Structure formats: structure tokens, C-alpha cells
């Protein structure tokens, strides 16, 4: 059975619910909340990650309308999955075959091929997330773009930094140190997250996208 905190039932029942959500996704005008719900269930119930990957591969194989809105919704969710979870090695191998042979080779100039290329690159960087993508991040991933993160620096104007789903706090801190001309400084620099109730340092390996999701 599935864990209790989120009132899940059995894994089989949850897999059926996710399959129904995927069917609904094809016709959804605003797919973002539904996508985030699927991602959250996969985060809470890791055994379902492979199941969703396999279902999405099935949905994007020989679709009735290749490149149509419904088909692209599946590719967009597959993009979000690839930036959040790594499938098991056998599923990963099959997924790469799907991306390379079934999609990029057959439809080289299509939107599907562009998503396939993005997904393949993301899978090479994804190590697992603490949080599912925020609504803003999902919208950005649907367009295969980067997010803009605003960092407030003491004694300097706020800096805008482009980040991906894989950008760490250490990478952003290093970029800001370079921008501010502090590369030769003997001091150590770190990012902090601040809310109304607390302020705490962000670990070097922490993904900035997870921090932004917590603020959402």
C-alpha cells in the first residue's frame, strides 16, 4: 500500500488515477496544475515514476495527430518528468530509444524532436528533486526555456540570473561573485533564503528550482 500522509490508496489504484489524469491532459486547456499533480504523486510514490514514463512513451508513440496540442501536452509533461526524476536503467534505455529512433530520426524538424532533444539533455543532468517543479517552472519547461531568478546582494543592486532545473546554489553564487568583481576576495560567499519567519543559508548543492518551489 501507499504511504498514508497524502491519503493515497494502493499503488495500483494510484496508477489507474494517474492514467486517467493523462487521458484528461490531452484535452486540458490549462494543463499546468494537472501536470504538477502528476509530478507530486510521483514524488510521493516513487514506484510510480517508471509507470508514468512508460505511459508517456506509449502516448507519444504513433499519436493520432503528431505535433497537435494533445500530443504536445504529453511531450511537455515528459519534459517536466525528465527534469525531476530519473527512471530505472531499463526504462531509461527504452526512453532513449524512443527519443532517438522514434522521434528525432523520424520527425527531425518537428516540435516533438525539439522536446526529445531537450529531454535527452535533461536526463543527463537530473539527479532527483526535493520538490516538484513550481507552476512557474512548469510553464518555462513547456517552452524549453530557463527561469529568471532574482538575487538581492548586500550593498549592490539585485541581480537577475538565468537558471535551469539543474542549477545549484554554488553555481549561482560563483556567477554573482564574478559579476560583482569579487573573484579575488578572500571572503567566502553563499546564498541565503529569507522568509518572514526565518533566514537560512542555501546549501551549495541545493537546486535553486527547489528553493523557488518552496516559496511558491
What is the strand and helix layout of this fold?
Elements lengths: L10 H15 L6 H13 L3 H12 L9 H14 L6 H16 L6 H13 L11 H8 L4 E5 L7 E5 L5 H11 L12 E3 L4 E3 L6 H8 L1
Antiparallel strand pairs: 1-2, 3-4
Continuous helix count: 9
Q: How much strand?
A: 5-15%
For the largest beta-sheet, the strand count, sense and barrel status come to: 2 strands, antiparallel
Total count of domains: 2
Main-sheet strand order equals 1-2
Name its key features:
216 residues; mainly alpha; 51% helix; Serine Threonine Protein Phosphatase 5, Tetratricopeptide repeat; two-stranded antiparallel sheet; 2 domains; Ubiquitin-like (UB roll); 7% strand; two-stranded antiparallel ribbon
Characterization of the model:
The chain is built from nine helices and four strands; from the N terminus they run αααααααββαββα. With 216 residues, it is mainly α. The chain has two domains: 132 residues, Serine Threonine Protein Phosphatase 5, Tetratricopeptide repeat (Alpha Horseshoe); 69 residues, Roll (Ubiquitin-like (UB roll)), CATH 3.10.20.90. The strands form two sheets. It has a two-stranded antiparallel sheet with strand order 1-2. It has a two-stranded antiparallel sheet with strand order 3-4. β1 and β2 form a beta hairpin. α1 runs parallel beside α3 and α5 runs antiparallel to α6.
